[in-house]
Backbone:
């Protein structure tokens, strides 16, 4: 996580902007003048251009691009390439999960030298360690990172993740597994290469995780459109103001809906407001 932490420090902003293009997220006129894939590309690259000097990272959501088939996957590849060329840390939000050689293939696709080569990728840990280790090995060999889903922000996450698993909820057991597997990859800033996704919609759980796992870096979705704010986000950080990056997708992408005007100008304004709110909360 050292590379991500250093980029956060450079910008003074622990924000990752989610790139989740959907037809309803595009400003009026995009789909009237462009085919869907070209519209997604223009929108995504416009956001990267608008935000690259404010945020340290972006998080393309693979599913949004996959929905357009092969054309969408080409757009995803170009988006990742352009984001990295702009100096941004790229977290591939793919939530991949499999075992053995299939997991190795996914890891090569997202953390190797292939088309979707990102700095980090999200994975589903609920297949166990053999579904995580190939990603972690690929990350360690290339200076990357992995974020395992632990306590997700969606309303129904409790249906399985809160089930008692020997005296602790299942999500806590997932975090314990991540701590164990990432224990030999702790960097100079004190965080391992295997982090956790923990939703801002569960602030008490974030507090418990931060206290229990001092070497685990958190990717925290749920800011803005899902109801999370800066005061809840502050619970994810350590006493140095490190240890987490807060994701905002719709609130930044769709800021044009509430702020009006050009979508890039609106996204910049929203990202700056989020940055300042997080700074105030952390101070």
Residues:
């Amino acid at each position: 996580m050292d590379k991500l932490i250093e980029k956060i420090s450079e910008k003074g902003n622990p924000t990752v902007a989610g790139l989740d293009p959907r037809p309803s997220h595009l400003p009026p006129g995009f789909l009237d003048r462009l085919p869907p894939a070209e519209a997604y590309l223009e929108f995504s690259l416009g956001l990267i251009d608008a935000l690259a000097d404010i945020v340290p990272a972006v998080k393309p959501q693979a599913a949004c691009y996959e929905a357009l088939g092969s054309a969408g996957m080409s757009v995803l590849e170009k988006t990742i390439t352009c984001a990295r060329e702009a100096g941004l840390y790229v977290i591939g939000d793919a939530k991949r999960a499999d075992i053995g050689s299939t997991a190795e293939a996914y890891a090569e696709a997202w953390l190797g030298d292939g088309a979707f080569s990102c700095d980090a990728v999200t994975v589903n840990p609920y297949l166990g360690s053999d579904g995580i280790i190939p990603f972690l090995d690929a990350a360690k060999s290339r200076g990357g990172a992995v974020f395992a889903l632990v306590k997700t922000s969606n309303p129904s996450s409790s249906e399985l993740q809160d089930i008692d698993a020997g005296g602790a909820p299942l999500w806590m057991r997932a975090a314990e597994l991540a701590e164990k597997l990432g224990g030999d990859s702790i960097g100079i800033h004190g965080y391992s290469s295997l982090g956790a996704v923990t939703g801002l919609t569960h602030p008490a759980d974030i507090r418990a995780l931060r206290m229990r796992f001092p070497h685990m870096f958190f990717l925290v979705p749920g800011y803005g459109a899902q109801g999370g704010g800066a005061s809840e986000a502050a619970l994810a950080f350590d006493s140095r103001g490190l240890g987490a990056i807060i994701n905002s997708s719709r609130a930044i992408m769709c800021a044009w809906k509430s702020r009006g005007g050009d979508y890039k100008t609106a996204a910049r304004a929203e990202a700056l407001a989020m940055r300042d709110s997080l700074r105030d909360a952390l101070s």
